[in-house]
Amino acid sequence: MKEKTQRPISSLFFQVCLLCSVFTEHTTNAEFTVSQNGPLTDFEAQYIKHRQLLYYRDEFGENVNIDPSMVFESNRIKNAYIALQAWKQAIISDPFNITVNWVGPNVCSYTGIFCAPALDNPKIRTVAGIDLNHGDIAGYLPEEVGLLTDVGIFHINSNRFCGTIPKKFNKLKILFELDLSNNRFAGKFPYVVLSLPKLMFLDIRFNEFEGNVPSQLFDKPLDAIFINNNRFAFELPNNFGNSPVSVIVLANNKFHGCVPASIGNMSNLNEAILMNNGLRSCLPVEIGLLDNLTVFDVSFNQLMGPLPEIFGELVNLEQLNVAHNMLSGSIPKSICQLPKLENFTYSYNFFTGEPPVCLGLEEFDDQRNCLPNRPVQRSAGQWKVRDSIIS
């Protein structure tokens, strides 16, 4: 006999049976295989979508059988077992057999699962961390993952997880590192992350998220934000500068508008990568207030105007990339004299002046500008095209 959570029979029961019969028939008549490399087939994607929707309608543990003979060292470990078994059921391809030993009540021995004493009771072991990075696992995240309430680190980058982020993620109240990067998640920005009070590190890059990024994200006490290489399309909000992050990477999305002047309030900022978006207008002089900035990349945008002289006060700056914009005027001498500057890329702009000191930098690129007596510069015709664009 096995113990299973029960609920009244409803129309959902018949929906589940119908879906299972359809899936069984399909897999009987045509083998159900999952591509371990490359995109999912239409059938695989549709199956995942249907299964995730069914799980969303279920309560925690509805789909997990628990053998009465199993002995768990605590209720928290039992909850973790339910969560991990539900997750295992949601996996349709595990080419490296990472989850093959996800069997039995000793969840602390499962591959990729790490246990530690509970923060509120050191006498109890709990699941404190998950690391399935580079597993090439295909599947989705079931709502039961919300039972892992003691997890502080959740890393599943470089897999093939798809669907959306479960709403029950809001139960992970002590989660401080969330890495979902390089997967196939889609839909709107996962708003559930805004309800995680301890979150410090957010990495959702290289997915298929789209639409707006909520302004509330920049009011969160995060240390690192990586949302690059998605399909986000929005304008950086005025409260952008409220963020206390040390690293922010927004590259390769579809932004528009300006870099807010509030960026000057980001006193902790070390690295800012805003490349290849739709940023327009001028670079705000407030950037010169970022004393701790070491890397600043706004290349491949549509920025105009001069390079602010105050950038010469960024005494910790090591890498500056403003290439592939429509910037003009002269390069400020003070920038090229920055004591730690190692790489300065300002190619593919319309600069007309360049102090000799810039030519002595360890690495620099000044090609495709309008600089006299320098090789590989723009033609006069290209100058006129630029003037017609900004006029």
Automatic annotation (TrEMBL):
Looking up Gene3D superfamilies in the UniProt record yields: Ribonuclease Inhibitor (3.80.10.10)
* Keywords carried by this UniProt record: Cell wall, Glycoprotein, Hydroxylation, Repeat, Secreted, Signal
Q: What does this protein do?
A: Modulates cell morphogenesis by regulating cell wall formation and assembly, and/or growth polarization.
Biological source species: Anisodus acutangulus
**Signal peptide bounds:** 1-30
Q: Which InterPro entries match?
A: Leu-rich_rpt (IPR001611), LRR_dom_sf (IPR032675), LRR_extensin-like_regulator (IPR051582)
Where does this protein chiefly localize?
secreted
Location comes to: Secreted, Cell wall
Superkingdom of this entry's organism? Eukaryota
Keyword Signal assigned: yes
Residue ranges of the TM segments? none
Protein name, per record = Cell wall hydroxyproline-rich glycoprotein
